[in-house]
């Protein structure tokens, strides 16, 4: 278990849900407030920190380890926007090996290099792929690496399904000193009912919504420039939404062990919402007295 320097926070979520975008904007917001931040991408996609570094290539920890011994911090890190230290764990050769292995290797190497003792971060953010919380991807919440996790989710069933799986992993490991849950981050909520679905999911699982990021062109445009919204559009409403979220996460100590929903109950819950949103959208109220 690493000595704790700063708050170590894991951010999980289904692939493509907006984890890296959200995490990088949180890092950027914390860094512009003067905090020392490290962001560690724990996704074989290895693009977690792109918008903090102008989209430049960064060798991953796994690639560097494959290249030989004596890997130094400079080989596997880059200083990004406002001093955020960027690291990507990397992934296995496609078709060979376990994706979670990169996270293990990255964390061990960073400990060997005494990174946390020497850099003295205020915040360390781990951006973790969470489609399947397999043994490897559970490392950041399982082995005392972080003590708190957030999950990014939309109101789509697969995103909620992945969030619920994370809750299962947290509720399994929390009693043995694993991480607890800080809350759910809503991302890309567009339709009016989306927030209601996510609120209901949070209520049912005993968690809170930490913040909600609406879908916006400003996010896509900033990504194309290789920048976070904080850097590309610092005066925008969206930048302020990310700043509020970062502030909330930085201060939040209300950590919980969530109550995941059982498999069949989750299906029923989703079906009920299916009926409800159909009624809301079509104006047809189901079972309206059989008129
Ligand atoms: P993940 O890290 O979960 O795989 P990304 O952060 O890479 O997902 O986001 C996937 C895509 O969605 C990116 O192209 C990103 O710019 C876009 N995206 C994420 N959040 C938003 C948002 N709030 N509005 C618009 N586009 C978004
Ligand atoms: Mg990502």
Q: What is the CATH superfamily classification?
A: P-loop containing nucleotide triphosphate hydrolases
Query: What small molecules does this complex bind?
Result: adenosine-5'-diphosphate, magnesium ion
Q: What's the total number of strands?
A: 8
Q: What is the first-to-last residue Cα distance?
A: 65 Å
Number of helices: 12
Stretches where pLDDT is under 50 for at least 5 consecutive residues are none
CATH class: Alpha Beta
Mean pLDDT: 91
Largest sheet: 8 strands, mixed
Main structural class: alpha/beta
Portion in beta strands: 15-25%
Give the helices and strands as they follow along the chain: EHEHHEEHHEHEHEHEHHHH
- CATH domain fold name: Rossmann fold
CATH architecture level-2 label? 3-Layer(aba) Sandwich
Rg result: 19 Å
Order of strands across the main sheet: 3-4-2-5-1-6-7-8
Question: Helix proportion of residues, in percent?
Answer: 40-55%
The number of domains is 1
Shape, per Cα inertia axes: globular
Give structural notes:
- There is one protein chain.
- This protein is α/β, with parallel strands linked by helices and 291 residues long.
- It has a single domain (7-262), classed as P-loop containing nucleotide triphosphate hydrolases (Rossmann fold, 3-Layer(aba) Sandwich), CATH 3.40.50.300.
- It has 12 helices and 8 strands.
- The protein has helices at 19-32, 61-66, 73-76, 101-112, 115-119, 139-142, 157-173, 192-205, 217-224, 229-232, 237-251, 263-282, and strands at 7-12, 37-42, 77-79, 85-88, 123-128, 148-153, 180-189, 209-214.
- Strands 3-4-2-5-1-6-7-8 form an 8-stranded mixed beta sheet, sandwiched between helices.
- Helix 7 (157-173) links the parallel strand 6 and strand 7.
- Helix 1 (19-32) packs across helix 11.
- The longest helix has 20 residues, at 263-282.
- The protein is globular and about 65 Å long.
- The model has no long low-confidence stretch (mean pLDDT 91).
- Adenosine-5'-diphosphate (ADP) is lined by residues 13, 15-21, 187-188, 213, 215-216, 219-220, 223.
